[in-house]
Amino acid sequence: MKQTIYTCLVAFLISCGSENKELSENNNAIEEEMTIENVMEPANGDEIILSSERPSGTINEDVQMEGSDATVQSGKGAINPINLGNVEDIDKYLIGNLEFHKDDKFAKIPSNLSSKSIYVRKETLNAFQEMAKHAEKDGIKLTVISGARNFNHQKSIWERKWNSSNIKDPVARAKDILRYSSMPMTSRHHWGTDIDINSLQNSYFESGKGLKEYQWLVENGPKYGFCQVYTDKKEKNRKGYEMEKWHWSYMPLASQLLSQYKKDLSYDQIAGFEGSEVAKELDVINVYVGGIADCK
Ligand SMILES: [Zn+2]
Prior knowledge:
Muramoyl-pentapeptide Carboxypeptidase, domain 2
């Protein structure tokens, strides 16, 4: 497959058989969606998508990976291993040191599937769109209310909570915030693989419409590679964050990013925000980044 991709890349402008045609069409579809977004949404700072920044007709490896229908049909495991490359890349993709609208591994979620301007990795978007289509047929509406957040975004969330807390002891203060919010550099939301769906309240998913949506996600999410990583800690004997019924992770990519994270990130690197000095004492890498359900 990989060899075919590279062969196709070289010969792209000439001709490369049906597989390449399919990939090319998928790329066009994404470009078109992004262009439509551009026209429909007012230009407001970070939220702009500069689809024109990418030369038309360019196929990058990510689009090729998500282009195959097999990716969606077979769910997790169908994505080729990603090569995160050098330290610069690790900085970018593991700790959110980037601007999503300028990175061609990311795409904006169409407005009919999101509550505001939200970016995720293209592979995540592709799988979510297929899942949302299936949900709609079953009378379930899935809307992404949060997706990729970069370092600065997470820092602003964290520091707002840090500075408004009345807990004096820094370790206890961090622990309290860490019930539901991540320290910058340790959030799965940096990766573009994790999304929050429909509501940020567990109670919403416990009755009526919310319960139906949650039950649908539990049953069908895994078919598309999505898993609720922050499950009930009592049932699953899991450490770290409290249960989040809204937070779903696209595991084919996220599990690779997690193992890369564990290999490459050290406490020396977790810095640059208030309270970062307690990261090591709280063992945030093992307890929080590593404290997920057994999603495989
Ligand atoms: Zn979340």
